[in-house]
Amino acid sequence: MTSMSGQPQFRYTQPPSKVLHLRNLPWECTEEELIELCRPFGKIVNTKCNVGANRNQAFVEFTDTNQAISMVSYYASSSEPAQIRGKTVYLQYSNRQEIVNNKVSGDIASNVLLVTIEGVQAGDVSIDVLHLVFSAFGFVHKIATFEKTAGFQALVQYSDSTTASAARSALDGRSIPRYLLADNVGPVHLRISFSAHTDLNVKFQSHRSRDYTNPNLPVAPSAIDGGQFTIGPDGKRREPESNVLLASIENMDYAVSIDVLHTVFSAFGTVQKIAIFEKTAGFQALVQYPDVATAVAAKEALEGHCIYEGGYCRLHLSYSRHTDLNVKVNNDRSRDYTSPGLSSNLPPILGQAPAAFGGNATNAIQMLSTRSALYDTGHFPGGESGLQNGTAGSHQRPQAWDYTSGNTSANAQKPCELQTFLIH
């Protein structure tokens, strides 16, 4: 493959290596940008940035050679070149089999600490947990986390070496308190030395790097929806709340359309916008409310419940990083209920209704609307006749359960699903 400038994007003068040499990088390209480019092809264990006379080259080391070959082969056959910040990046195999960084003695006092977090993988210990732990000894200016051969590591910057020394003396060899960690994470030990760095170059606020002296720094595009945690006043991990919910739906034996989602989520307040999409995780949707409080109420009530009886279409909800969805057209994939006059490239399409409605989608929506309206009282009606399934028979609904008080009507059992939205 040849770039627009006529310069070959790949050089095959070197035999395959797990280390790739990248050229023509943008000025002061960060380690995070390199990892973002290379991560789809394998695990990155080491990097070396800003090398060469123009500081526009770098080395990236994969876990094994096959991952490096996969990246080179992909871009060699792709019509789209590898790019960072819109700049074409040239790739070739390095003549080295591993990256060896020049080390400065970790015993020379510095204002930046190199922290190796033992016994965990990246993601087990969030950057917010590290900030809470190290802030006990002074104001933390910046934190950057990364994965190297030694494991999951972090650089923690203080204002001076005295503060950093105090933190190292107190924390080296110690464990992070259990209450700050998820239940599935084992003991986490800290091994701390001084870094040769004096001022970390943090370009973005993300789950991998943070500059606490510059809150206006842009958020990295790679920040994962609904995947970050903050630390609450009680010191425990807490998911940041948002007015937009990310809904993942599993066990989709029945179709779930935008109209069905609107009916379900409207039981808790006005739904402004919905967008549905497919990802590797399966069917997902973004649901926007006008305020955070409404989204919180919906999430707490619907998490883990099923849209249809029998364990079908189970909802898993998290908070999205979005606050205002950009809906450009009203169709079967997106809907802006605040702009009903928005143009429509496609007519609204309701997915196949379950057989309980004889295949009639209109009946399904009308019945869901009726049931959802009952949720405003916080009670479920008892003794309602089941829906005819178009062949024979009916089904008796469970008696009412008051979720606000825990009281039921006579001899009622607490339903395992949120019966307001079940389709019998």
What this model shows, in words?
The protein contains 7 helices and 20 strands. It is globular and about 60 Å long. The chain has helices spanning 31-38, 65-77, 127-134, 161-171, 258-265, 292-302, 361-373, and strands at residues 10-11, 19-23, 44-51, 57-62, 83-84, 87-88, 90-93, 112-118, 142-148, 151-157, 189-194, 209-211, 230-231, 237-238, 244-250, 273-279, 282-288, 306-308, 312-319, 334-336. The model is unreliable at 1-11, 224-228, 346-362 and 364-424 (pLDDT under 50). The strands form 5 sheets. It has a 6-stranded antiparallel sheet. Strands 1-7-2-4-3 form a 5-stranded mixed sheet, covered by helices on one side. The longest helix is centred in the N-terminal third of the chain and has 13 residues, at 65-77. Helix 5 (258-265) runs parallel beside helix 7. Helix content is 17%, strand content 23%. By secondary structure, the chain is an alpha+beta fold.
What would the keywords be for this entry?
424 residues, 20 strands, five-stranded mixed sheet, six-stranded antiparallel sheet, 7 helices, alpha+beta, 17% helix, disordered C terminus, disordered N terminus, single chain
